[in-house]
Amino acid sequence: MLGGVTMAQLLGLALSPIITRLYSPEDLGLLAFYVALISMLAVLATGQYQHAIMLQKKESAARQITYISLGLSVIFTTFFAVVVGCFYSDINAALGSKALGGSLWLVPFGTLSVSVFAALSMWFTWQKQFKQISVNHIGMSAMNNGTAIGLGALQLSGAGVIIGHFVGQACAALYFLILFFKTPRQGVSHLKIRALLRRYKKFPCITLPHSLFSTAATHLPSLILLGAFSPAVAGLYFLANRAANVPLTILSQSLYPIMFGAFNESQNRRVLFRRKFISVNALFMPLFIVFWFIAPSLFAFVFGAEWGRSGLYVQFILPMLYGKLISNLFTTPIYFIYERQSENFLFSVCITLSIALALLYGARHDDIAQGLILMSLSNVFFILIKLYRAYCFVKAA
């Protein structure tokens, strides 16, 4: 499954130079807004009941919870579609230059696609059908980018990149739905569904707010930049963050299980922490320093001259991205092993608030560079504290 997700990310990154030559920074800024909207709405749509699928021992119970997630998604997105239909003009007028225009109609259906995909991803993970998940991730990326490139080449609309995202997500959700309903199945049991709704009521009450907070934090910079500056600035940041994050995500996903296993099995975690911390930084820090120097010219060459500013944004946020990589490899496994999830969540809240305050400060002074630098430095500050705390845990043990 990890290989499929990695291939999908690499495919999207490889096709990005074509997309950036067909679409403007403003177009990608509106894409960032669209993705943020449907991602947060999808968290609400399922009630986060899909996470209960993995807790089931019997297929019948797992299937009933999948029905719950799918049913809630349909109900929520139908309601939201009615809201969009009733207030379509008012919503676009309120958004002004950030309006999605006709693409606003895609928001409820995009939300449905994302929530269905999330629920059925859990189902097929429970079924251990990792090949199907991998194939679907790659197909979604191909449809997403292929549609965007095709519409961009025809010069039909700047919204082609949003339509491409919707088509890719909708096809992936439809593929999962076909597979789900093709398998021998038990029908909907209203008695079981009512019992499961009561049994797992903590998921919408507790897991949902945490998931919504985490999703909002992920998209917060794009939303603030869009609202406080312009769609073009948000689009430049969207590309910078996406292009820099893909290799980091692949590294993190590859190394995290190794690091977690090493810390979990180690008899002397303090020595292991110090040794691994030195070796990992000795390996990756020189590469990051080189990338920091060449980022502006590299982005201008690869993505086109008007995207050179994205390379500057990468320089501003690279310390933060590097800190997140190191934090994920060291603090995340330590916090799980020592069951410090509540403290970890508190750090997440502090980091999110620091992001908002830094970017709003930059917006107040009409200085995007100042906002991004402050955001990066504040993240590094909290990450350093987390690393120190993690080391204190292993040292005390």
In short, what is this structure?
With 397 residues, the protein is mostly helical. It has two domains: 2-201, no CATH class; 229-396, no CATH class.
- Protein structure class: mainly alpha
Helix and strand sequence: HHHHHHHHHHHHH
Instruction: Write down the Rg.
Output: 22 Å
Oligomer: single chain
Q: Count up the helices.
A: 13
**Which overall shape is indicated by the principal axes computed on the Cα atoms?**
globular
The average pLDDT is 88
The largest β sheet comes out as: none
Report how far the terminal alpha carbons are from each other: 35 Å
Point out poorly predicted stretches. Answer: none
Query: Any idea how many domains?
Result: 2
Helical proportion, percent range: over 70%
Percent strand: under 5%
Write down how many β-strands occur, each being a DSSP E stretch of 2 or more residues: 0
How would you describe this protein?
It is a single chain. Helix 1 packs antiparallel against helix 9. Helix content is 85%, strand content 0%. The mean pLDDT is 88. The protein is mainly alpha-helical. It folds into two domains: 200 residues, no CATH class; 168 residues, no CATH class. The relative contact order is 0.11. The chain starts with a helix and ends with a helix.
Distinctive features:
mainly alpha, 85% helix, 2 domains
Describe the secondary-structure layout:
Elements: H1 2-22, H2 25-46, H3 59-95, H4 106-126, H5 130-154, H6 160-182, H7 190-199, H8 202-228, H9 231-265, H10 269-303, H11 308-337, H12 341-364, H13 368-396
Helix pairs in contact: 1-5, 1-9, 2-3, 2-4, 2-8, 2-9, 3-4, 3-7, 4-6, 5-6, 8-9, 8-12, 9-11, 10-11, 11-13, 12-13
